[in-house]
């Protein structure tokens, strides 16, 4: 079947199988490599994308479900400068090691700050609970999001 949706600000049309997951369509058919394949069972958040502004696991969304909707990934938000404060804070706080989880964390944190520009530490922890990192131990990531909130432009 053929689906159409907005990807990173541009309309795309792509042929998919009814049971094809969005993660595969983005990575394999549309070349969006920031979306990572981790657990593939809704546990790690490495495959996070924004669906109509909300973070979702692209490994749990069937491609036909996004027909007519909007998907945003790190590639786009980095190009518009909207991730600048988060990226700077992640670097400054050393909240990135291997980087595999980082796009997912950035999108989840971005969605949080759009909705709540001044979150408490508890609110940051809660928002990020669906994203796993096996390198940093989370403390630095949480510090980075709190730091980014001070400079985040909504
Ligand atoms: S790959 Fe989707 S949640 Fe882990
Ligand atoms: S930085 Fe390596 S998994 Fe998070």
Could you list some keywords that capture this structure?
alpha+beta, 154 residues, binds FE2/S2 (inorganic) cluster, five-stranded mixed beta sheet, 36% helix, single chain, globular, Ubiquitin-like (UB roll), DNA polymerase, domain 1, 2 domains
> Over the alpha carbons, how many angstroms does the gyration radius reach?
15 Å
Order of helices and strands: EEHEEEHHHHH
Largest sheet properties: 5 strands, mixed
Provide the low-confidence segments as ranges. Answer: none
Estimate the helix proportion, in percent: 25-40%
Overall mean pLDDT stands at 97
Bound compounds: FE2/S2 (inorganic) cluster
CATH homologous superfamily identity of the largest domain: Beta-grasp domain
Number of beta strands:
5
Helical stretch count? Answer: 6
- Given the helix and strand composition, which structural class is it? alpha+beta
Widest sheet: strand order? 2-1-5-3-4
CATH topology of the largest domain: Ubiquitin-like (UB roll)
Determine the strand fraction and express it as a percent band. Answer: 5-15%
How widely separated are the two ends? 37 Å
Q: Can you tell me the number of structural domains?
A: 2
Which architecture of the largest domain per CATH?
Roll
What's the layout of helices and strands?
Layout: E1 2-7, E2 10-15, H1 22-29, E3 48-51, E4 54-57, E5 70-72, H2 74-80, H3 84-92, H4 102-115, H5 121-127, H6 139-149
Parallel strand pairs: 1-5
Antiparallel strand pairs: 1-2, 3-4, 3-5
The site of one FE2/S2 (inorganic) cluster has 12 residues, from loops.
